[in-house]
C-alpha cells in the first residue's frame, strides 16, 4: 500500500496540484487580506485596491478599517474573469 503525499493541512498534494487558484482560494477557511490576495495573484496591493473600487470589482468587507476578502466571493470573481482555453 502506497502512502499519499500529505501537506500540513492533511490534504493530498496531488489534489492540490490539480486545483485552480480559484479552487484553492475557495477552500480557505478564513478571509483573505489584501496582502495575501496580492501575493497569490502576484500583483501589487495597489492593483488589488483598484479592483476593490471598480463597479464590478472584488467584493470585500471592512472591519474597523481592515479590509477582508471572502474566499468564496473572491473565487467566484476570479472564475468570472478567467479566459477560456482555446483548442
Would you report the number of β strands?
Answer: 2
Strand line-up of the largest beta sheet: 1-2
Q: Radius of gyration from the CA trace?
A: 15 Å
State the low-pLDDT regions, or none: 1-8
Span from first to last CA? Answer: 39 Å
Beta content comes to 5-15%
Main structural class:
mainly alpha
Assign the CATH topology. Arc Repressor Mutant, subunit A
- Return the domain count: 1
CATH class (first level) name: Mainly Alpha
Instruction: Give the integer mean of the pLDDT values.
Output: 81
Individual helix count: 5
- Describe the main β-sheet briefly: 2 strands, antiparallel
Kindly state the percentage of residues in helix: 40-55%
What CATH architecture do you see?
Orthogonal Bundle
What does this protein look like?
- By secondary structure, the protein is mainly α.
- Helix content is 44%, strand content 7%.
- The protein has 5 helices and 2 strands; from the N terminus they run H-H-H-H-E-E-H.
- The chain has helices spanning 13-17, 21-26, 34-41, 45-53, 71-80; strands at residues 61-63, 66-68.
- A hairpin with a 2-residue loop joins strand 1 and strand 2.
- Helix 3 crosses helix 4 (45-53).
In a few lines, what is going on in this structure?
The chain has helices spanning about 15, 20-25, 35-40, 45-55, 70-80; strands at about 60-65, 65-70. The chain is mainly alpha-helical.
Task: List descriptors.
single chain; 87 residues; Arc Repressor Mutant, subunit A; two-stranded antiparallel ribbon; 2 strands; disordered N terminus
Amino acid at each position: 500500500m502506497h502512502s499519499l503525499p500529505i501537506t500540513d493541512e492533511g490534504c493530498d498534494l496531488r489534489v492540490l496540484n490539480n486545483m485552480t487558484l480559484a479552487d484553492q482560494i475557495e477552500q480557505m477557511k478564513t478571509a483573505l487580506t489584501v496582502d495575501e490576495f496580492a501575493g497569490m495573484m502576484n500583483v501589487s496591493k495597489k492593483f488589488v485596491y483598484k479592483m476593490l473600487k471598480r463597479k464590478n470589482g472584488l467584493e470585500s468587507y471592512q472591519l474597523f478599517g481592515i479590509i477582508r476578502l471572502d474566499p468564496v466571493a473572491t473565487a467566484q470573481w476570479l472564475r468570472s474573469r478567467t479566459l477560456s482555453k482555446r483548442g
